[in-house]
Each structure stands twice: as C-alpha cells, then as structure tokens.
Input
Amino acid sequence: MGTIAEAEKPVAVVAQPSRTALQNKQTQLAWLLMSPTIAVIIFVAAYPLGRTFYDSFTDASFGAAATHFIGWTNYYNLIHDTPFWNSVKETFKFTILTVVLEFVLGMIIALVVNSNFRGRGAMRAAMLVPWAIITVVNAQMWKLMYNDTYGVFNDFLQKIHVVSSPVAFTVSHPLASVVAIDVWKTTPFVALLLLAGLQVIPSDVYEAANVDGASKWQQYWRITLPLLVPAILVTLIFRTMDALRVFDVFYVLFGSRPDTETMAIYDYQNIVPFGLVGYGAAISVAIFIILGIVITIYIRSFRVEQS
Amino acid sequence: MTTNTVQAKPRSRLSAVNLGLGKNPLSRIGFWLLILLIIIYLLFPFYWAFRTSITPDNALYSVPVQYFPAHPTLKNYGDVFGNSNFLRALLNSAIVGVSVTVLSLVVGASAAYALARFNFRGRSFMTYLILSMTIFPQIAVLGALYQLIKNFGLYDSLVALVITYMLFTLPFTVWVLTSFFRQLPKELEEAAYVDGANPFQTFYKIMLPLAAPGMVTTGLLALIAAWNEFLYALSFEFSPDHFTVPLSINNFTSTVASSFAIPWGDIMAATVVVTVPLVVLVLVFQRRIISGLTAGAVKG
Output
C-alpha cells in the first residue's frame, strides 16, 4: 500500500536557479493553497472536538442557565450507566455480524465477477444500485418486506413452508433484521473494493501455478488470499469504522426502542431530545476512545501481517 | 501495491481465476445459477419498492400478497407529486447537496494539489490528518456542532447542513483528488514553468482543467454522501419546510402511523422518485465512481 510512502517521496517539480528560494516559495504557496481546507477543518472538526472534551467535564445542557465544571462526574456516571453499555454491546454485535457476513459474501461476489463472462459489466453496474440507495429509504423498503401481515418475506416463507405462521421479524429478531438490511446495502461495496484488489494480481502468477499443477482451491489459499491481504485489511477497517457508527438503519427501524440502541443513537438521544450536552459529550469521548482502540488493533495486526 | 494501476489497464492484467470457464457443463450451470441468485438478491428489494409504488392501496394490505399488482396504478405518484412537503424536501436536498459538493471541490482541489505536487515540511502530517479525517465519526462532535449552530443562529436552516456536511465531504474530496493529481504527468507542469508560468498559474490554468474527470467523480461521491445524510439533518432541522429527503421519507411514517395504516404506497413511490435519478447517475458514471471509491478506500 504505497500511498503514504509515496507522499513522503520528495516531488521535485523543476530545477530552477535558486533552489532554496523556490523551496520557500513552494512551501508558502502550499500552505496558502491548503489554508481554506485547514480553516474548514478547524471550524467543523478540531474546535468541536476540543469543545466536546471540555463539555464532557461540565453539566452543560440546553435549558439550564448556567454551566458548571463538575470534573469526572459524567465519566463516573457513564461507567455505571447500564443502557450505555448495552448500546456498546449491541453495536459490537452488529459490527461483528455485518463485517463478517459482508466480507464473506463480498469475497464470493468479487470472485464471481472477476471471472470472464458475458454481462460482467452489467453485473458490476447492478452492484452499485444498493450502494446508491439512501440508507433511510433502504430501511423503509425492508420494513415493508418484513411486515408480519402483508410483507413479502412472510408470504414467501409460508409458501415454501419454511414457517407455518407469520413472523414479526423486527419484533422477534431485531438484530438479525437490521443486519440483513446493512448486509444487502454494503456487500456490493465490499465486493467492489475486493474486486479492485483482485484485478491487480498479475495473471502470470496463476499461469505458473497451473503449470505446477496447483488446484484452483490451492491457488486461492496460497496466491489470491495472501496477495489480497492489504486490500482486505483496508476494506475491513473502513467497514468496521462505519458499522461502529451505525445510526440510520436502527433509528428508522426501531426509533429509540431501548433494547436496540446503538452507541450513536444513545448519544444522539442524550444530546438532542434530552439536551444533556455535557453527558452527551462524555459519551462522544467514550465512542471516540472505543473507535481509537479498534483502529489501533487493526493497524497493529496490519503491521504484523506486513513484516 | 497501489491499486490505481487497475484504472490504467484493467483488461490486460485480469487475473486468470475463472470460475465460469470450467469445461464441465454442470459447473457452468452452477456458475450461471450463482450469478442469477446474486442479481435477484441485489435487485429484488428495489423491485419490491417499485411494485408497491404501483399497487393500489386496497391490494396492498390484503393477503395473499400480489407479486405484481393485478390493477397497476399511478395514483401514489400523483399523491407524492402533490405533496408539498415532499417536493420541498427534494428541493432542499438538491440545494444542500449541490452547495456542499461545489464548496468541497473549490476548497478541496487546491489543498489536494498542494499535497500531491509540492514538497514542504508538514506535508506527510497533513496527508495523515486528511486520511484520518475520512473516518472521523460524525457523532463525536454532534453536541459541539449543535451548540455552535445554535450560537450562530443557524439552527433549523439549510446553511447549518451545508457547513457541517463539509466534515465528511471535504477530507474525502481532498484525499481522492490528491490521488488524481498525482497521476497527472509532471512534464506538463515543467513545460508551464519553462514558459514562465508561476506555480499558481500552473495550478489554475494547466492542472485544474486536467483534473476535471477526477473532480466529476469526487463531486458525485460527495453529492451522494450529502444526499444520504440523516443524523445531522435530524438534529439540526426542526420545521418540515427545512427537511431533506431522508428526513421527509422517515417522516412519512411517523406522521400517519397513528391512523389506520402506514401509507406504504406513497412511501415507496417517494422512494422510487428519489432513487431512480441516483441510480441513473450511478450507472452513467459507474466506471468513474468505482475508480473514485477504490482510490478513496483501497489506496489507503
């Protein structure tokens, strides 16, 4: 994965009489060109993030006239906040299930589409359709299909005698219902990323393996998978980060039903409807730390894999 | 191990693993069945939204379920296009989406050029910063942005969304455009310098027009991200006049849920209306989008 390494490489644009003068001019211009971006980042990310850390030590709330510094109280309360830890558990269950399923199904689809067949282009185009649909819209579509009286899933499952009486999917199997929706929307995206990784594996490697009499199965495990490791890890990192922040699907399907709250929904509930900015900030910091831990684990394993 | 070589020559380097070209007819049938299964899986929910949108209400809530309506109707579409809140939401989403996209491109292109082509201290730091920003969790700054927006008097305004959406569109735009600028040949810049152009002119007159295809890709992805956004719209908008499409479609249910039935026909007609343009856009630009997505993600 060369991007960062590439970035470190000096890019000598052109040699001109005075190198240092040009260098200074370039540095100045570079910062000038980046200044609008930096200003936006400070305004929408850096300052709000700092403010979040600060707020997490206060009792700030909408409606209260004065804000007080209350030290670690919010964090102390958070540690003993059972609904919060339930939301963490729910989010991790969702993340593990979706990432694993999307990876396995995405890999199968990527391998199929990587074969040469007629209509391959059309297939790749069809893969973009679920990805392009608004998540809220997507959740609504599935909500209708899940319906226990006039939903198509119940009708179909009863027709083929898998179930004998209607199932209220979103009531009795909330997590599975939501996982299925996310898997449908995101698997094609995962497949496209893996496909891009597959296509840079040079074909002569396989030709050599064929000459040596390696079976397709052996080729997959010994050649394809190892060469795909960087693409796989980056895909997994992106998907995991996305899944841990999940909000839309759960919110549309269940609103703020207590047993189906994710970390993001619990945080939103505290900040917006309840107006508890200080406590919400502590939850935000906790989410930030949790994501940081997960990404560190990924990058560690990436390094081990590389060496 | 950069994957961008894919875009340069996709055909010539196709790997030789061909699941479908076995000589055994049985395995070929199996392969095509697998493809059929994948296509049905990908497209069925969308077909179902479409069939619901053309099904009359009385057939919608009755059993057995009709897989294609016996008496298709366009009434739901009439309802949706007569719904001023929904039309307003379409307009709002278009305003927010286009503004965010244009702003991100204008602000982001120059930063991307600097990161791709200039050699200066702090460059790798900035590159890392932008990369890490692409996975920045929106929820982490929800409360602080909420306060900021209230303090600036922007609560319940579309401007609030245009500004806050930059949090996810801008870093992504810079990141993808940087990879596009890096692929442009250096000789062009050198020629411009030799002809006496200063670095700013070189960027503005030579490199920027050349990066136009990259800008289209990036712009599309930013537009789709903004079109999709729900959390900030839900938090920062209050009156139905300022709802975006996701809010409005979510609200179709909540307002009528107390009455006899959820207006599924209307919701699905609205779904089709907001999805079809996006699907068309995506299909027209599919190659670009795929290259942009893979440049944005896999190249990390």
Notes: Chain B has two domains: 19-76, 84-296. The CA atoms of residues 108 and 174 of chain B lie 5 Å apart. The two ends of chain B are 10 Å apart (CA to CA). Chain B touches chain A through 122 residues (CB under 8 Å).
